[in-house]
């Protein structure tokens, strides 16, 4: 049985669509919003006897609660050529697993779920409009399973931003973030209105597959160009340092905008993402 992702947010969604998260509007929920007079909210089931008995003017008071509200969960998926990498796991398969699990979890929470896919352009074949649909995970499995990553750019993700909901949403950006300098900051600045979860995909084989010594082919996954090098300890350390620097850059840019990246090392583990949301909320 699949484990649900219990995504948590630190803000109150607006709107009046019932859901599982504490909203900002008045309605049926668990958190007390205010005490109001019965004439303003004529629901005797919520009568507060203590407040009513203490009122010197004999007015009746009822409890008013925050409405449990639904919101939109959106996935922005990078399908540029580097996402075709296969090591211990297929990178695109990992991205699909995450998206599929989010689709199931959003439906179970009553939240709308949508997907946008892009390389240099927005791919209509990888686009699912936001909605509450119990079969959205099947769409993800079928359609994203058919997508073949290509292209040397993920610039199309920036063109998606105007098509996102105007109301604040939870947005997952799934990528290896092998982008030109400044591109990530540009995207995050455009997404600053939303609650963004950068999902950084890595694979242990990126380092473990390199020989300790001898000839090795280093391939640029975005352009497809390869060059042969003589692997030695100093070069291996340089590659490891570049990989660590890439992770730090993603973390630093994310923190600058108040986001916290979730790093996937190999296969996707829903339990780790649940732990991530618990720590993010603390």
What number of structural domains do the residues give? 2
> What is the total tally of β strands?
10
Distance between the termini: 28 Å
Major pleated sheet: 6 strands, mixed
> Which percent range fits the helix content?
25-40%
**Which stretches are poorly predicted, pLDDT < 50 over at least 5 residues?**
none
User: How does CATH name the architecture of the largest domain?
Assistant: 3-Layer(aba) Sandwich
Summing up helix and strand content along with how strands pair, one would put the structural category as alpha/beta
- Report the total helices: 8
CATH class of the largest domain: Alpha Beta
CATH homology superfamily name of the largest domain: von Willebrand factor, type A domain
Protein described:
With 282 residues, the chain is an alpha/beta fold. The chain folds into 2 domains: 18-69, no CATH class; 72-281, von Willebrand factor, type A domain (Rossmann fold, 3-Layer(aba) Sandwich), CATH 3.40.50.410. It has 8 helices and 10 strands. The chain has helices spanning 49-54, 91-109, 136-146, 156-160, 183-190, 205-208, 233-256, 270-281, and strands spanning 18-37, 61-69, 72-78, 112-118, 122-131, 170-175, 195-202, 214-219, 226-231, 262-265. It has a 6-stranded mixed sheet, with helices on both faces. Helix 2 (91-109) packs antiparallel against helix 3 (136-146). The longest helix has 24 residues, at 233-256. The model has no long low-confidence stretch (mean pLDDT 86).
């Amino acid at each position: 049985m699949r484990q649900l992702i219990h995504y948590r947010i630190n803000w109150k969604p607006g709107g009046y669509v019932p859901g599982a998260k504490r909203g900002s509007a008045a309605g049926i929920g668990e958190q007390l919003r205010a005490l109001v007079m019965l004439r303003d909210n004529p629901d005797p089931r919520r009568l507060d006897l203590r407040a009513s008995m203490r009122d010197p003017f004999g007015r009746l008071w009822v409890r008013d609660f925050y409405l449990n509200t639904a919101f939109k969960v959106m996935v922005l998926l990078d399908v540029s050529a580097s996402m075709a990498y296969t090591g211990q796991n297929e990178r695109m398969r990992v991205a699909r697993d995450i998206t599929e699990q989010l689709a199931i979890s959003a439906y179970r929470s009553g939240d709308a779920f949508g997907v946008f896919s892009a390389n240099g352009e927005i791919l209509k074949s990888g686009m699912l409009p936001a909605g509450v649909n119990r079969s959205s995970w099947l769409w993800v499995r079928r359609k994203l399973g058919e997508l073949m990553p290509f292209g040397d750019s993920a610039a199309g993700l920036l063109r998606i931003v105007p098509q996102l909901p105007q109301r604040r949403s939870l947005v997952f950006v799934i990528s290896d973030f092998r982008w030109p300098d400044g591109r990530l900051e540009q995207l995050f600045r455009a997404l600053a209105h939303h609650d963004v979860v950068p999902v950084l995909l890595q694979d242990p084989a990126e380092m473990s597959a390199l020989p300790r010594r001898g000839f090795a082919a280093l391939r640029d996954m975005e352009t497809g160009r390869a060059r042969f090098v003589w692997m030695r300890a100093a070069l291996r350390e340089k590659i490891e340092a570049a990989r660590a620097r890439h992770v730090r850059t993603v973390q630093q840019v994310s923190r600058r905008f108040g986001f916290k990246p979730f790093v996937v090392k190999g296969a996707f583990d829903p339990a780790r993402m649940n732990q991530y949301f618990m720590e993010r909320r603390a």
